[in-house]
Amino acid sequence: MTFHSRAPKNQTGTFPDDRGSKKGLDITNYVPAFLTFLANKLSSGASAVYRRRFGIGITDWRIMALLAIEPWIPAGRICEVIGLDKAAVSRSVRDMAALGLVETQVQECDQRRQFIALTRNGIEMHDSIVDIALERERVLLAEFSEDERRLLVSLLARMHARIPIVNAGGEADETE
User: In what order do the strands lie in the sheet with 110-118?
Assistant: First the structure.
């Protein structure tokens, strides 16, 4: 991954002054930046495909993917697993309900919490999108051996497990 400055130059062809920081990150080796760039590009590409072919965006797809394996869960569970905020989940669920892709129900013992599941139409759409998602993954990882793929998933899972520590300030007892 390479980066080049796109800043405007003055008439002499040089930059007017040095605005870069001496503490600038080497974003070609800074893992959070790399992961963010990769995730953003994958998400925007998937969203474009899913919107064009199915009329839903990446947030809708992520929720559908979770509901396909965990039906009848509350919005809080979706937020916890996927890492989305409640407002985004609420909007997406509302929009997908209007499209007939999900339905919500409340339990008699707790009228405040809505439980969400895919409808039959939602399951059909999910199953169509899964094929595209798996093909995108296959192309993305085409140059990886099966061992490398397993290692990558293992490393990402270990990183994911540390997110609560990082988000709590990054300080943890390393002897745990």
Answer: 73-74, 110-118, 102-107
- Mean pLDDT, range 49-75, rounded to an integer: 97
Number of domains in the chain: 1
Cβ atoms 99, 131 nearer than 8 A: no
Compute the CA torsion angle 86, 92, 97, 103 (nearest 10 deg). Answer: -40
Asked whether residue 84 is domain-assigned, the answer is yes
CB atoms within 10 A of CB 129: 21
**pLDDT digits over 94-126, tens only?**
999 999 999 999 877 776 789 999 999 999 999
CATH number of domain containing 126: 1.10.10.10
End-to-end CA distance of the chain: 35
Domain that holds residue 68: 54-163
- In angstroms, rounded to a whole number, what is the distance separating the alpha carbons of residues 115 and 113? 7
